[in-house]
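Researcher: Excuse me, tokens okay?
***
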Amino acid sequence: MPENFYALIMAGGGGTRLWPLSRRDRPKQMLPLTEERTMFQVTVERLRDLLPPERIFVVTGSDIAAALHQSTPALPFENFIVEPFGRDSGPAAGLGIFHIAERDPQAVIAILAADHHIADEGAFLQALRAAEVFARQGYIVTLGIPPSYPATGFGYIERGEQLGEAHGLAVYRSLRFTEKPDEATATLFLRKGTFSWNAGMFIMTAARAKQEFARQQPAMYALLERAVAQPAELPAIWQQMQKLSFDYAIMEGAQRVAVIPVQIGWSDVGTWATLFETLVRDEDDNVVRGGEHIRIDTRGTLIVSDRLVVTIGVNNLVIVDTGDVILVCDKNRAQDVREVVEQLKAQGRDEHL
């Protein structure tokens, strides 16, 4: 890739839907969920054939920055851009973009998540190469995942006419973003065939990104300019920053957006149920991570434990044992785990930490 192509890995967030394994001090990106390496390590290594370490930047929180760097020592420590505290993905992405733009005004930046599973790494890198071509033409390019079911937990991107192709991939004009529709709307999108899931991967020039911040979020733009110019003042500046996701702050109103539909074996690994779908299952459709499992008439169950777990006559469960907590839930209710975390916070308990 050209010398001014960069990756910006978004490594904040708590991953509360994967509680009790994922907690505030050890969030999802720091866990070895799909492989023996952590999600963050896998994300960095996925880029090894595309970018040198000095062109991979990370935006993360002050509480985990040192641990993330320790797990990936090849990345320069100065490439870890640290938020004083979370303000959602809009300001976080902006801080990374403005830092990279300060270093290289001609930069093309791929914004990527630190905690997603991608099975086909070759197809993923091919898509980034194609996106880089159109980003240089002034487009904000997003990678779209063809939906396999009417998901209500993802955003959707509708594509219009084909703009061209690059590296063997078709590139389309993006007509609109729809954030987390209801089931009837998601079913309609699936049937229509022109919608992709929004996987949160965006490729654009630094200059183009800054234009959109200035146009759509002028107050945020001014604060980000100050944050880069006056790093010692970052905590005070961050207190004034509006909490807003990148999708709402920039993408929903962005001009000249393109989408590349890609089959890359993507999963956001957002819940225990989606983790189950990414892992290899045994002959009875069970997944065991960690210790030993003795089962009798057990099917479709995920077990995460370092101890012996025995199950008899159960189906479609999630069982997670972390020593201080045991979670047992129906796999179809895996989204509701975040409600437990909210209850723990409300009760002043510390098991979510």
Q: What stands out?
A: The CA atoms of residues 130 and 169 lie 7 Å apart.
